[in-house]
Design brief:
Layout (H helix, E strand, L loop, with lengths): L2 H13 L9 E6 L17 E6 L5 E5 H13 L7
Antiparallel strand pairs: 1-2, 2-3
Helix pairs in contact: 1-2
Length: about 80
């Protein structure tokens, strides 16, 4: 999946409240085959896995690049209602 498609998917998920935009504790390591919430693909052992744990206990797993970076960028954007 290319970066534009991932960005569009993230925007849709954020708008539908299916993907949170809040701060959490981030753990970084090698992938173990878990699914990336942003692109829907497995995070392979050769890839960087960003595990974001929110105060609520919810956990997200994202590829380091480009998925985590795109999620951070999209969450920094003002919501459509405030643009």
């Amino acid at each position: 999946m290319d970066a534009d498609s991932i960005r569009a998917r993230i925007r849709q998920m954020v708008a539908a409240n299916a993907l949170p935009c809040e701060e959490g504790k981030v753990w970084v390591g090698r992938g173990v085959g878990e699914t990336c919430v942003a692109c829907g693909q497995p995070i392979e052992p050769t890839e960087t896995d960003f595990e974001v744990v929110f105060p609520s206990g919810e956990t997200l797993r994202l590829h380091g690049q480009p998925c985590h970076s795109l999620w951070i960028e999209e969450c920094a954007q003002p919501s459509p209602s405030t643009r």
